[in-house]
Amino acid sequence: MPLASEKGVPALIRGSRVLDAVVASDQPLTVSDLARRLNLPKSTVHGLCGTLVDLGLLSRRNGNFLIGPHVMRWANAFLAQTDLTAEFAALWDNLAVLSNETITLSVLDGAEVVYIACRNSSSSLGITFRIGMRLPAPFTATGKSILSTMPDAQVRKLLAGHWPKPLTRRSVQNIDALIGELDECRRRGFSIDDGQTREGMYCFGTPVRDSSNQVVAGVAVSLLATRVDEHTTELAAESIQTIAHQLSMRLGADMKKLQA
């Protein structure tokens, strides 16, 4: 992205872009990797990375760069000030259902969801959810649940020109197919990720609302596909709707008004 179209301090913007690139990568990146991805001179990236390492925002390992420990202090401070994650943690501590399943809470950021809280099951799903993890909203249960609360025109505008690369052979292929899924989600009251994020994993999701009754997040439960049948689907759907309802109530949502 050309800096001419950005407002703010150029060096700070470049530094932020470096951090975003490192966070988005599954592997540590070199200066050359970053320069190619960000379309910046290697000398510029080298200087930025050196400064970010000095600040503790990046770590250097064998010529590669990873997120540094100082970032966690910011993340912890953010989470400590966020009622949403605090209430979610309090809720799962007292959870009587789905106590051994993976439960996640995420927020929408553009065309992606960002995971802000998670409790991973001891059962191997082939994926471990972690705070700060990003996934394409059209493929995830939380993303679908949040998108289902928007008008179709808004969903199309949000995803125009930004269709994500499929994560599995089951990932929804285009915007029209997604709109069809969102219609189904609205009809039944919950969303389903049927292996679209990870082969062999099913997720069921529902939106979470705040005191203004606006959707602020999505909550989902993830299970092994081999365990999913009609009974399990009903149980998972009922349980995740209960969790979302309780979490919304804790945040001050007027659920009676929504049901009217």
TrEMBL record:
<dbReference type="InterPro" id="IPR011991">
    <property type="entry name" value="ArsR-like_HTH"/>
</dbReference>
<dbReference type="InterPro" id="IPR050707">
    <property type="entry name" value="HTH_MetabolicPath_Reg"/>
</dbReference>
<dbReference type="InterPro" id="IPR005471">
    <property type="entry name" value="Tscrpt_reg_IclR_N"/>
</dbReference>
<feature type="domain" description="HTH iclR-type">
    <location>
        <begin position="9"/>
        <end position="69"/>
    </location>
</feature>
<keyword id="KW-0238">DNA-binding</keyword>
<dbReference type="Pfam" id="PF01614">
    <property type="entry name" value="IclR_C"/>
</dbReference>
<dbReference type="InterPro" id="IPR036390">
    <property type="entry name" value="WH_DNA-bd_sf"/>
</dbReference>
<dbReference type="InterPro" id="IPR036388">
    <property type="entry name" value="WH-like_DNA-bd_sf"/>
</dbReference>
<dbReference type="InterPro" id="IPR014757">
    <property type="entry name" value="Tscrpt_reg_IclR_C"/>
</dbReference>
<protein>
    <submittedName>
        <fullName>IclR family transcriptional regulator</fullName>
    </submittedName>
</protein>
<dbReference type="GO" id="GO:0003700">
    <property type="term" value="F:DNA-binding transcription factor activity"/>
</dbReference>
<dbReference type="GO" id="GO:0045892">
    <property type="term" value="P:negative regulation of DNA-templated transcription"/>
</dbReference>
<keyword id="KW-0805">Transcription regulation</keyword>
<dbReference type="GO" id="GO:0003677">
    <property type="term" value="F:DNA binding"/>
</dbReference>
<dbReference type="InterPro" id="IPR029016">
    <property type="entry name" value="GAF-like_dom_sf"/>
</dbReference>
<dbReference type="Pfam" id="PF09339">
    <property type="entry name" value="HTH_IclR"/>
</dbReference>
<feature type="domain" description="IclR-ED">
    <location>
        <begin position="70"/>
        <end position="253"/>
    </location>
</feature>
<keyword id="KW-0804">Transcription</keyword>
